[in-house]
């Protein structure tokens, strides 16, 4: 009986509360406003709410910027809310250069544990895995993993360099793009056109929608920092970034990548877009070399704090 009475009282309270919500308190008039009758003050409040929502959307800590051929998410992670956005990209060659994704994840840990490292005027964006399909081929996951999970030799990881369309994503950007590209002594696919692949198109769309102050892309493996260029000369700021990162990290500095001709290179496309950008090639395909890269990253962030 008590249970029944409690239930009845609860129903009555809900009904009364709903009445007051809809009709207001006794003695007060409450009406539902017609959108066409919103006053100037009301409009200002609406604009403020919309502006606040836009700001929250812009500064959200992570966002999916696109999907791969196989439908896997390509995710960007954000740290800081400053106007100067510095972009870091790993995993363009998926499971073949899996250690480049781990460097990016280490950077995420570093900034998460040390938020003051990001200057107030800087926003750091990290895309740890640009080629999730290629990573999954070798590691079995499109996200974070442990080096111990990779049991294949470097030669055995070569299929993971390419996306699910068997395209080398670092031959699919709009700087000297060709349908057939070169990787070492091998011929590789550059796709059917520049940005034909959803992964490279996701990077292009993100960059075109943001004001990128600088970009750093990790590759393997040569142990050096390389300036970008797409027939318009090396940007002065690119030279500065190359030297800063090289001096701080201990990697050798190169004015250009000249081991063999490459077409459709992502970092050179940044240069074509007049965005200062450098390639950081790790020494091999297994070591993360975090201390070296942390020093280089700190040097770049300190530079943009000025």
Q: Gap between N and C termini, in Å?
A: 74 Å
CATH class of the largest domain: Alpha Beta
* DSSP strand content: 15-25%
CATH superfamily of the largest domain: Zn peptidases
Our Rg estimate from Cα atoms comes to 26 Å
Q: Strand order across the biggest sheet?
A: 1-2-4-3-7-10-8-9
Q: Name the structural class.
A: alpha/beta
Proportion in helices: 25-40%
| Overall number of structural domains | 2
Shape: globular
- Give the biggest sheet: 8 strands, mixed
Q: What is the ordering of alpha helices and beta strands?
A: HHEEEHEHEEHEEHEHEH
Task: Let me know the number of strands.
Answer: 10
Tally of helical runs = 8
Mean pLDDT across all amino acids: 86
CATH fold field value of the largest domain: Aminopeptidase
Uncertain spans, ≥5 residues at pLDDT below 50?
1-57
Brief rundown of the structure:
The chain has helices at 2-23, 40-58, 98-113, 132-139, 198-208, 236-249, 266-272, 290-304; strands at residues 62-67, 73-79, 84-89, 122-127, 180-183, 186-189, 212-220, 224-227, 252-254, 277-282. By secondary structure, the chain is of the alpha/beta class. The protein has two domains: 2-50, no CATH class; 61-304, 3-Layer(aba) Sandwich (Aminopeptidase), CATH 3.40.630.
């Amino acid at each position: 009986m008590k249970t029944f009475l409690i239930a009845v009282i609860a129903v009555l309270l809900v009904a009364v509360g709903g009445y007051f919500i809809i009709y207001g308190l006794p003695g007060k008039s409450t009406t539902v406003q017609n959108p066409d009758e919103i006053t100037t003050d009301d409009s200002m409040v609406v604009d403020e709410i919309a502006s606040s929502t836009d700001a929250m959307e812009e500064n959200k800590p992570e966002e999916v910027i696109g999907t791969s051929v196989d439908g896997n998410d390509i995710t960007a992670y954000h740290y800081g809310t400053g106007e100067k956005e510095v972009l870091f990209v790993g995993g363009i060659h998926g499971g073949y250069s899996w250690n480049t994704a781990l460097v990016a994840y280490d950077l995420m840990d570093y900034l998460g544990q040390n938020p003051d490292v990001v200057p107030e005027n800087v926003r750091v964006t990290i895309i740890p895995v640009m080629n999730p399909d290629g990573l999954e081929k070798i590691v079995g996951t499109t996200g974070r993993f442990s080096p111990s999970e990779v049991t294949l030799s470097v030669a055995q990881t070569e299929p993971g360099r390419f996306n699910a369309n068997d395209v080398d994503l670092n031959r699919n950007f709009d700087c000297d793009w060709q349908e057939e590209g070169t990787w070492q002594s091998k011929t590789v696919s550059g796709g059917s056109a520049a940005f034909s692949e959803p992964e490279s198109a996701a990077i292009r769309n993100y960059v075109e929608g943001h004001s990128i102050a600088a970009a750093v892309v990790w590759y393997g493996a040569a142990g050096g920092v390389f300036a970008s260029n797409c027939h318009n000369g090396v940007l002065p700021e690119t030279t500065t970034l190359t030297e800063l990162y090289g001096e701080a990290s201990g990697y050798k500095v190169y004015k250009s990548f000249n081991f063999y001709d490459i077409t459709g290179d992502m970092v050179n496309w940044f240069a074509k877009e007049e965005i200062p950008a450098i390639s950081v090639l790790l020494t091999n395909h297994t070591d993360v070399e975090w201390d070296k890269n942390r020093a280089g990253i700190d040097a770049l962030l300190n530079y943009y704090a000025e």
